[in-house]
Structure formats: structure tokens, C-alpha cells
From TrEMBL:
<keyword id="KW-0460">Magnesium</keyword>
<keyword id="KW-0479">Metal-binding</keyword>
<dbReference type="GO" id="GO:0030272">
    <property type="term" value="F:5-formyltetrahydrofolate cyclo-ligase activity"/>
</dbReference>
<dbReference type="GO" id="GO:0035999">
    <property type="term" value="P:tetrahydrofolate interconversion"/>
</dbReference>
<keyword id="KW-0067">ATP-binding</keyword>
<dbReference type="GO" id="GO:0046872">
    <property type="term" value="F:metal ion binding"/>
</dbReference>
<comment type="similarity">
    <text>Belongs to the 5-formyltetrahydrofolate cyclo-ligase family.</text>
</comment>
<dbReference type="InterPro" id="IPR002698">
    <property type="entry name" value="FTHF_cligase"/>
</dbReference>
<dbReference type="GO" id="GO:0009396">
    <property type="term" value="P:folic acid-containing compound biosynthetic process"/>
</dbReference>
<dbReference type="InterPro" id="IPR037171">
    <property type="entry name" value="NagB/RpiA_transferase-like"/>
</dbReference>
<dbReference type="GO" id="GO:0005739">
    <property type="term" value="C:mitochondrion"/>
</dbReference>
<dbReference type="GO" id="GO:0005524">
    <property type="term" value="F:ATP binding"/>
</dbReference>
<dbReference type="Pfam" id="PF01812">
    <property type="entry name" value="5-FTHF_cyc-lig"/>
</dbReference>
<keyword id="KW-0547">Nucleotide-binding</keyword>
<protein>
    <recommendedName>
        <fullName>5-formyltetrahydrofolate cyclo-ligase</fullName>
        <ecNumber>6.3.3.2</ecNumber>
    </recommendedName>
</protein>
<dbReference type="InterPro" id="IPR024185">
    <property type="entry name" value="FTHF_cligase-like_sf"/>
</dbReference>
Length: 292
């Protein structure tokens, strides 16, 4: 996700020190413990934190931060590979059921959601996507269908777009064997880019490798989502729109203890997590909308 050279140590280390400071200043509301981690996760968190603390004392702080991320990614990927298929299926069903029945999902008119990839062992979104696309355009005189935007990777420089689709037929398989929207539909009409839409997005449904209850999210090292979310935050400020709710979907083994996920100023936190145990609201917006 990131690269650096000791030749540019001065500038990088200064940025790293600022980033490391953020690790000890999480955004949290002291929410009730709606989810209890498994003992394995507790061991994972403590091992990662001790490893990071040791490196931070003895070596380049920016390298220590990235090493903590690499170590946690490696461990969570292994946990996901070894996850029992039956348990995975049960958790997929539970998570999606929670989402489609949540008030913040039902009342969202415009949604950005990822198309799940079995190869990446992501929480399944098939039912969520189907729920959005299968709704009739109108019920009586009331517009009912949600707008759905899904990600399309543009290049290797962490650039990603969110394009609107109206059917799964608008999706194609890319070079990484992941479904993403084509640039245009079968009639040659360009799919709408969410950054050019006239109305704001209400909800982002996000993937990730690991999460904690303070809203920290560990991605897969590409930086695509963090960069896109930063750009969309800037757009909402320019247009004076309400910020969308950022909700991450997480298997139970992906939720780790506070201190396990290193963050930098480039990382964007989430407002809520959905695990098989239920919704974990984090930000004030999530608490407000969870009561709706």
C-alpha cells in the first residue's frame, strides 16, 4: 500500500511520528460491549501490539507501523482461509439479514456497496445487492428503488471509481477475477459516476480485513477505499451535503481488540460494524440512525 526509502527519511519519519500519535488517540464513544471477541482474537491483538511496541522503540517508526499492519494482515488472512465453510455461510446469512432489515439501509436512497469476492474471502453481499436491484422503480406514486454504485479499479495508483449499475448484467470480470461495472451498458450509455451525481450517497457498505470497536479499519494494502473515501468527504464538504454512513461488514474473527490496528492520517474510520452478533454503532451518526 505504501513504499518509502531511507534516502527520504527526514520527511517520512516526521509524517510517521504524526501518524503514530494517532494510534493512541482513537475515536470512540464508549459504546456498550455488543460483541465479545474470541480468545484467539485477544491473543492476536496482544501479540501484534507487543510486536509493534518493540519495533517502535528500537527502529524506524514508520517501518514499525507498516510492519504491524503487515503482520495483522497475514494473521487475519490465515484465519479467513481456515474458517469453517459452514460457519462462513451462517455468518454471511446473519450479517446480510441484519443489513437489509436495518432502518439505515431501508431509508437509504443511494448506496455504495462492494461486490463480494470469494477469492478475497469477503463477507458476502449477494443478498444486499439483490435487495437493492430487485426493488420496483415505483410503488404507486412513491419512488422506491435505491441507486446502487459499485467499485471499479482504475489503475495501480489506488484510484477507484464508483459507478451506478441497474442490473448484475452491468458487471464484468476484471483481470483479478473480481466483478466490477463496465464503463457503459449494453446500449453504450456511460454508467453514472457517483462523484458526478446530483444527489449525495446515504450509505457506504465497506469491506476490510480487520476492524476494532473504535472504528479503525485495516484494508488489503491497496489504499483504494481510503483514497476514495477521502475524495468523497471533500465532495460532501464542497456541496454542503450530509456525510454518508460508513458501515463495514465483518466476520466475527475479523474484529480485533483496540491497539491491534495501526492507523495513519490517510486511513478513514467507519461509523459502524455489522458482525453476526449485530450492529456495533461507533460514531454519533451511527447511534442516531440505529435508533431510527
Amino acid at each position: 500500500m505504501f513504499s518509502h526509502s531511507r534516502a527520504s527519511a527526514s520527511g517520512l519519519i516526521n509524517r510517521a511520528k504524526e501518524a503514530v500519535t494517532l494510534i493512541t488517540q482513537p475515536r470512540t464513544l464508549g459504546s456498550p460491549p455488543l460483541f465479545t471477541s474470541r480468545p484467539a482474537n485477544e491473543r492476536l491483538a496482544s501479540q501484534s501490539y507487543r510486536s509493534f511496541a518493540t519495533m517502535n522503540r528500537n527502529d524506524d517508526p514508520i517501518e514499525a507501523l507498516f510492519q504491524q499492519k503487515r503482520s495483522l494482515r497475514s494473521r487475519i488472512r490465515k484465519e479467513l482461509r481456515n474458517m469453517d465453510p459452514v460457519r462462513r455461510s451462517e455468518e454471511d446469512a446473519a450479517i446480510q439479514s441484519i443489513v437489509v432489515n436495518a432502518p439505515w439501509f431501508k431509508y437509504s436512497k443511494s448506496v455504495c456497496a462492494y461486490i463480494s469476492s470469494p477469492a478475497l474471502q469477503e463477507v458476502d453481499t449477494t443478498r444486499i445487492v439483490s435487495e437493492i436491484l430487485s426493488k420496483p422503480a415505483n410503488e404507486g406514486d412513491v419512488p422506491n428503488r435505491k441507486k446502487l454504485y459499485v467499485p471499479r479499479v482504475e489503475d495501480r495508483n489506488s484510484n477507484m471509481r464508483m459507478l451506478r449499475i441497474s442490473s448484475v448484467d452491468d458487471l464484468i470480470v476484471n483481470s483479478m477475477n473480481i466483478l466490477e461495472p463496465a464503463l457503459s451498458d449494453s446500449d453504450g450509455k456511460q454508467h453514472e459516476d457517483v462523484m458526478e451525481a446530483r444527489e449525495p450517497v446515504d450509505l457506504f457498505i465497506l469491506p476490510g480485513l480487520a476492524f476494532d470497536r473504535c472504528g479503525r479499519r485495516l484494508g488489503r494494502s491497496g489504499g483504494y477505499y481510503d483514497l476514495f473515501l477521502k475524495k468523497y468527504q471533500e465532495l460532501t464538504k464542497e456541496r454542503k451535503w450530509k456525510e454518508p454512513l460508513r458501515v463495514a461488514l465483518s466476520y466475527s474473527i475479523q474484529i480485533v481488540e483496540e491497539g491491534a490496528i495501526a492507523v495513519t492520517s490517510n486511513d478513514v474510520s467507519v461509523d459502524a460494524l455489522v458482525s453476526p452478533a449485530g450492529v456495533i454503532p461507533i460514531s454519533p451518526a451511527a447511534w442516531e440512525r440505529s435508533m431510527g
